[in-house]
# Entry
Amino acid sequence: MLQKHSEGKTVNYIRPEINAMRGYVPGEQPKAGEAVKLNTNENPYRASEKVYAAIRKVADEGLSRYPDPIADSFRKAAAQRYGVPQGCILCGNGSDDLLTILTRTFISSGEILRLPCPSYILYQSLAEIQGAKSETVFFNNDWSLPNSFCAASSAGTLKLAFLPNPNSPSGTVLPKERVLQIAEQLPCPLVVDEAYADFAEDNCISLLEQTDKIIICRTLSKSFSLAGLRFGFLFAAPKYVEAMLKVKDSYNCDSLSIAAAIAAIQDTDWQQDNRSKIIAARSVLVNRMRELGFTVPDSQANFTWNTRNDMPVKPIYEYLKQHGYLVRYMNYADWGDGLRISAGTPEQTSECLSLIEKAVLRTAR
Amino acid sequence: MLQKHSEGKTVNYIRPEINAMRGYVPGEQPKAGEAVKLNTNENPYRASEKVYAAIRKVADEGLSRYPDPIADSFRKAAAQRYGVPQGCILCGNGSDDLLTILTRTFISSGEILRLPCPSYILYQSLAEIQGAKSETVFFNNDWSLPNSFCAASSAGTLKLAFLPNPNSPSGTVLPKERVLQIAEQLPCPLVVDEAYADFAEDNCISLLEQTDKIIICRTLSKSFSLAGLRFGFLFAAPKYVEAMLKVKDSYNCDSLSIAAAIAAIQDTDWQQDNRSKIIAARSVLVNRMRELGFTVPDSQANFTWNTRNDMPVKPIYEYLKQHGYLVRYMNYADWGDGLRISAGTPEQTSECLSLIEKAVLRTAR
# Structure
């Protein structure tokens, strides 16, 4: 990895922070057809055909021209659908792009990012890339969040906090009154990552009118079944949107995804139907996993979090993988491990549960 | 822009570097059909139909699943097409994404980015966002680059240099022997931005075998007529690609663009035909603009750079805009202004030149 410099010393030119970091590793992505994927919370159903019609229309019109840098047509449609002013909306190349833009807009090198644990591991990588520090606060046993999450940092200036709600891997939700309390107590803005909010009973959009310290991130990857499209959006006070426009790449969203995203959020019938199916599969998963001896918190997302103390769960993950079912084995330092299982079709869910039953019997022996 | 903090002092939470910067402003993007766009170096022809067929195929297959995080299918195709090992290839959401990733991989806060002037204004914004400093070195009058471009910085540690080749706005090229010399003299890696190289007589790919200090960026926006798709790629030593994989967003390229990009680079017949047409229009532009009294350097890109001392050129830009033709008026501090005009179809080019002739006569009066 090192090369000889002309003076004889070895240099590799890469920033020390990047050399030192391990890098975020996304969930396994086997080739199509090689496995049933219940490991990355993708949606098992095909997106609305209106989305694909919009994509074909853009292909007919052509892609020679640059897209609208701020995707105003989407912002207008989202303002209508979500009842949020257009100036409060920013679009991204997936919500990962938005989380990156947020980190780069608010946190300088050496400053602090606050995040709960266990939650989305990527947040820590974002801080590392920025040369910032991250401070994790563990959830309580009942998946509530202690007040220490809101305290100033002793290690530096706390500049941003991330809170996935519903959380991953737990699928649990903090009530919005509690989210508002956290935002008001924090000495910095709070990013509520609502990647899974469409599967929950409520969301935090109404809080935007009460405080400009809350920023809400959304994605089309989960509840719109468009993980392959890369499109996300966020709601924030206009002053923050304006700052983030300076940080984002000029043309961060392509013409196909902008048109597809508009069609997606406007097809509320598709989404209602899809939501019902996912919630039904989630219920089956939660109930059966509890019968099989797992501890499973109530989930408001499109997945469930499954732990147990009487036997290791990694062999169960491995057994499933051998039999063509991928779930996510997660092991959090100083906390523990478990299996995160996405809601699939009824057939996938049922087959996965049968395999888990067999694996539990094998492992218990 | 400021809000009251609970203690009574005003804070806005945004990083001071972001508050201070102006933000990169991309070229004007009128709605389709509202103007002939010769201002952002887009390609006036429709991309290969094989590209659109690939997009429709992905739409048929669906977008529920995440894309391949590193777009290996494209890397394999690009390795074949360009004769560069697969491990040397990194894909991005447009080459802007790659320029951002490069900046974040190599330059820490307070360090130095070197760039020539006049060139792509975005480079400076990238340094600003990173909290880094940029140092510009002016091209010589003949568009060669002085050796001071390679010198260590007195203001901090020089960590990366950007060199567009062909350059924008000039369209001029440094011979690859000179690029190699610059790379070897620099105390840091050199990013050769080859956005326009497909319109040039040569490129720097063969230099990759001679030094790992050269990194080459490519885009599908110009020579593949896919600005609306957002896809770029770069060639670098594997150690740099590995570091950049840690910095990029996990799924920075979507499934549609990966499939489209493979089809694009494989259709060499389309590109050869397109290249001939663009170069023909460029010749017409260069010759006629010289006849009309402009100074026009020989261009190896899909645009020309037009200056003159005997009259202001901004009124010409404004006259063209009033008549439905957008060209790019550029004004560089401490250097001067000019018109950058993209090669259009024969009809667009001819009509634009007629309008310029009229504008020159009006302005000369």
